Amino acid sequence: MSDPSSVVHSTADKSALLRSLALDRELTTDKRSRPQHRWRAAGAGGLVLAAVAGAYLLGSYESSAPPAAGLDTPAVPADEAATATAAPAAGDVVLEATGYVTARRIATVSAKITGKVMAVYIEEGMTVEEGQVLARLDPTDAEAALALAVAERHAAEARLAELEAQLAFAEREETRQSELQKRDLASAAALDSAATEVATLKAQLASARAAVEVAARAVAVSRTQFDNTVIRAPFSGIVIAKAAQPGEMISPVSAGGGFTRTGIGTIVDMDSLEVEVDVNEAYIQHVRPEQAVKITLNAYPDDPLPGRVLAIIPAADRSKATVRVRVAFAARDPRAVPDMGARVSFLEEGKAVQGQ
User: Fold this and answer.
1) What is the H or E stretch that residue 232 is in?
2) pTM here?
């Protein structure tokens, strides 16, 4: 038989074990009530958000509504409004290309004859007018040739005058012989001789007149050669290079083993400046004549200049797959100089750069 005391202890241990496994009523009640508290908190948060949204919408409506009578509202400055409407947005640019500033009228001025430079009157950066004297060559040879041509013309004119006098005398002699022949006081042979002399002198006179004309043309050629010793500006512009100094030889063609200059200086017509860019042939359909563009010089990236498409060269470069486009400035800008890098932004139709 089992011991009664051991049965009692066993029963007590089981009861204690069951009590340890039982759930705490307060804890259970608290856990069951937590979801309700969560829903209540979420509801309160929703109400707060709804109140904030309502206040925001009310403020937006009041700001967009017309001001009530008697209330002052700040006005937008007229210049700021104009700037905002005239300046193109980033989306207005349909294509961009890079290129260089070029001049349509640029010339390296040289002499038409070979000679030694006597004087140079230009310097880099100087503004010159059309016809202004830039330099002079040694005129010794040209001056001597001109003097010789003038002397030959004088000799031809003297010979012409001599023949004219002889012809006049021969014509009077022919007239006398004719009158004597009529009175049987002169032979027919004397009359024929006088007539022949007149015809001969007339032929010589025609040749002398032609010689005078040739001499006059020779003088004109020599005078032109003499004038070629004076080098003048072919058009108005700015000197960007001085290539010769006094004492050097100059020639319109390269000669002298590289010791002969081929020009006095280089002149650029700044009013003829434009920009040439290469546009990829795959995007050339976005470019059209007279299209508005924005020209940004690399030296002044924050100050774009207005312009327009001047011409699209109808030829493609197969090696680069590009088409050359000429772009003109809307107005002359003194900051633009030849060979300066530039970026051209082609604008949508109807868009214009501020200031154009």
Assistant:
1) strand 230-232
2) 0.59
